[in-house]
Specification:
Elements (H helix, E strand, L loop, with lengths): L9 E14 L3 H10 L2 E15 L4 E5 L6 H8 L7 E6 L9 H4 L2 E5 L11 H11 L4 H14 L15 H13 L5 E5 L7 H18 L2 E5 L3 H7 L2 E6 L2 E7 H6 L5 E8 L5 H4 L4 E6 L2 E7 L3 H11 L2 E7 L3 H9 L8 E4 L1
Parallel strand pairs: 3-7, 3-8, 5-6, 6-7
Antiparallel strand pairs: 1-2, 1-4, 2-14, 8-9, 10-12, 10-13, 11-12
Adenosine-5'-triphosphate (ATP) binds next to strand 1, strand 2 and helix 2.
Length: about 350
């Protein structure tokens, strides 16, 4: 059942966030000096971001470390006040943190936990039931559903501190979605999990999106999360949105707009010989990979098939990891700072 409504839309206009950081020189004398004349440095973490999401849309929010992803999500969930610009989430202004707004959203941060460490997860769920005023019948129905989809049986009554990371993350997600929010901000929800657990979390998020028509903004360093869940990608770099479009179009930006041709040969060929057919040639025994311009894929493939003893040939877009590495390789952390005395 998909229950999308216009309420779950997200509108962001020219959102900005500047952090003030007080600088202190090292040592006792440094402390004394900064006590007398304090230097403030301003970090422009988000520099005017705009986008709109339709109800039920799932977007991957990507960018290098320090690009401004977490800061943006914190502003959208009302934890941080923007320095400028506006956001409207499900019809609300996040900075006001109205109860009705909080009932519509959730923010899950893979690196932070909201469950009470010394108690079983079930106790935290009951606390959330009270905070979000979830009616008993809805609470029971949601618990049944989550227990099944996330295989929570047997772990809900264990002290949270005794759960494995994967078990804890499943409980964190359940706790964060118990009130059935319509807009989800998921910041690295699968971080540190093993591959099977990542897949379980992904499946749960996909199921939740389909069932409740939830709008989702997802950041993840695991591209498998993004390719499995998001139709659309937003890329932020140094606080600015540098790409907004579908995954395929982002892939086209990689390898200088080229495609990857993969060959299985029956007879070995040297990298030097293959250089005539494309760039970035990689040879691993009888497996070969090279990049060819998009407009020439058919002609080059035909030449390869005619000239070499080819057992198999496939043409692929470059993996999204490669595209991101190419886009951000050297600019892993860029920030423009204004120093004021
Ligand atoms: N509380 C803060 N005070 C000062 N500067 C901050 C604060 N939080 C973040 N920043 C700076 O703002 C910029 C954006 O940080 P943010 O955490 O939003 O990036 P990110 O894209 O989420 O990075 P990552 O992928 O590493 O988590 C960085 O330069 C960071 O150092």
């Amino acid at each position: 059942m998909t229950t999308s409504s216009p309420d779950a839309s997200v509108h962001v206009r020219d959102l900005k966030k500047q952090y003030a950081v007080h600088e202190k020189e090292p040592g006792f004398m440094g402390s004394l000096r900064s006590f007398v004349s304090r230097k403030t440095k301003y970090v422009e973490a988000v520099k005017g971001v705009s986008f709109d999401l339709a109800p039920g849309e799932v977007v991957g929010f990507l960018g290098p470390n320090g690009a401004g992803k977490t800061t943006t999500l914190k502003m959208l969930s009302g934890l941080l006040h923007p320095s400028d610009g506006v956001a409207r989430i499900a019809g609300f202004e996040p900075r006001k943190r109205e109860t009705a707004f909080l009932k519509q959203i959730t923010l899950v941060m893979g690196q932070k936990q909201q469950l009470i460490w010394d108690l079983p997860a079930l106790d935290s769920f009951l606390v959330n039931q009270a905070i979000y005023e979830i009616p008993d019948d809805q609470y029971r129905a949601t618990m049944r559903e989550f227990t099944e989809v996330l295989s929570l049986d047997g772990i809900l009554k264990k002290q949270v501190r005794k759960l494995s990371l994967g078990e804890r993350m499943k409980c964190e997600l359940a706790a964060a979605l118990l009130h059935r929010p319509r807009v989800l901000f998921l910041d690295e929800p699968t971080i540190g999990l093993d591959v099977n657990m990542q897949e379980a979390v992904r499946a749960f998020i996909r199921d939740y999106n389909e069932r409740y028509g939830a709008t989702i903004i997802l950041t993840s360093h695991y591209m498998a999360d993004v390719t499995a869940l998001a139709q659309r990608i937003l890329v932020i770099d140094s606080g600015q949105l540098v790409f907004d479009g579908d995954l395929a179009r982002l892939a086209e930006q990689g390898k200088g707009g080229g495609k990857t041709v993969k060959l299985k040969l029956r007879e070995a060929v040297s990298a030097a010989q293959l250089a005539a057919y494309g760039q970035d040639v990689k040879v691993d025994g009888l497996s070969v990979e090279l990049t060819v311009p998009r407009s020439e894929v058919s002609a080059r493939a035909a030449r390869l098939l005619a000239d070499l003893d080819v057992a198999d040939l496939t043409v692929e877009d470059p993996p999204i990891e490669a595209v991101m590495a190419e886009l951000f390789g050297a600019t892993a952390k860029v920030e423009k700072e204004v120093v004021r005395g």
